[in-house]
């Protein structure tokens, strides 16, 4: 059972998402919250698998709530998915930096929304290649973050290759096919790269891959 937390300051939005999620046998909405502070408290109380969090809310916005969830070892299993009305913007990239596993635009089709919740629960990043290109083209312009250089130096050639493919939006199975290895080996390469680069999840691995220069925007 996938346990979901809904965090949005608009009750109508929350009720709409809840009604959709409640139709699924493998998904349970365990709590709702109307702002980031309350959402953080509910996350600590219920330990959901997926937290769907709006970006712009009173008291505490979604970015700060995401940052605090990502920083709390007790919430390491919580996968944050950001909800936005605006598509790709600077807030989305800030949320990815803060530790979000991906983002969804609120006018998403119901079947795509349900699929996204399941993808997030598995720990996969919700970043399509086209979205990745837009994010990187617009917002990755800062120098390397402290520690990324050292982490890159520790990657093996195969780990670098796996990271580059993940940064293009490929799943572990697709990475395995491209590298002509087993899915388990592909997953191992990706997981080891995440550890070496101190990436919380695949979304942050994508961000680090582009910020570090390991992958250039034109490659995706």
TrEMBL record:
<protein>
    <submittedName>
        <fullName>Two component transcriptional regulator, LuxR family</fullName>
    </submittedName>
</protein>
<feature type="modified residue" description="4-aspartylphosphate">
    <location>
        <position position="54"/>
    </location>
</feature>
<dbReference type="GO" id="GO:0000160">
    <property type="term" value="P:phosphorelay signal transduction system"/>
</dbReference>
<dbReference type="GO" id="GO:0006355">
    <property type="term" value="P:regulation of DNA-templated transcription"/>
</dbReference>
<keyword id="KW-0238">DNA-binding</keyword>
<dbReference type="Pfam" id="PF00072">
    <property type="entry name" value="Response_reg"/>
</dbReference>
<keyword id="KW-0804">Transcription</keyword>
<dbReference type="InterPro" id="IPR039420">
    <property type="entry name" value="WalR-like"/>
</dbReference>
<feature type="domain" description="HTH luxR-type">
    <location>
        <begin position="148"/>
        <end position="213"/>
    </location>
</feature>
<dbReference type="InterPro" id="IPR058245">
    <property type="entry name" value="NreC/VraR/RcsB-like_REC"/>
</dbReference>
<dbReference type="InterPro" id="IPR011006">
    <property type="entry name" value="CheY-like_superfamily"/>
</dbReference>
<dbReference type="InterPro" id="IPR000792">
    <property type="entry name" value="Tscrpt_reg_LuxR_C"/>
</dbReference>
<dbReference type="GO" id="GO:0003677">
    <property type="term" value="F:DNA binding"/>
</dbReference>
<keyword id="KW-0597">Phosphoprotein</keyword>
<keyword id="KW-0805">Transcription regulation</keyword>
<feature type="domain" description="Response regulatory">
    <location>
        <begin position="3"/>
        <end position="121"/>
    </location>
</feature>
<dbReference type="InterPro" id="IPR016032">
    <property type="entry name" value="Sig_transdc_resp-reg_C-effctor"/>
</dbReference>
<dbReference type="InterPro" id="IPR001789">
    <property type="entry name" value="Sig_transdc_resp-reg_receiver"/>
</dbReference>
<dbReference type="Pfam" id="PF00196">
    <property type="entry name" value="GerE"/>
</dbReference>
């Amino acid at each position: 059972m996938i346990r979901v937390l809904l965090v949005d300051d608009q009750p109508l939005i929350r009720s709409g998402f809840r009604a959709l999620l409640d139709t699924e046998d493998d998904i349970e909405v365990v709590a709702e919250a109307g702002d980031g502070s309350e959402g953080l408290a509910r996350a600590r109380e219920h330990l959901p698998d997926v937290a769907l969090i709006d970006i712009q809310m009173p008291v505490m916005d979604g970015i700060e709530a995401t940052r605090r969830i990502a920083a709390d070892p007790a919430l390491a299993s919580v996968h944050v998915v950001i909800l936005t009305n605006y598509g790709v913007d600077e807030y989305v990239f800030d949320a990815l930096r803060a530790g979000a596993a991906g983002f969804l635009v609120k006018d998403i089709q119901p079947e795509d929304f349900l699929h996204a919740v399941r993808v997030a629960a598995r720990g996969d990043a919700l970043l399509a290649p086209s979205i990745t290109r837009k994010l990187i083209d617009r917002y990755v312009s800062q120098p390397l973050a402290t520690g990324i250089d050292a982490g890159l130096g520790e990657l093996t050639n195969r780990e670098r290759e796996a990271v580059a493919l993940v940064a293009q939006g490929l799943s572990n199975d697709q990475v395995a096919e491209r590298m002509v290895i087993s899915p388990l080996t592909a997953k191992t390469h990706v997981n080891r790269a995440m550890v070496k680069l101190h990436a919380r999840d695949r979304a942050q691995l994508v961000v680090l891959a582009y910020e570090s220069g390991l992958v250039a925007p034109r490659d995706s």
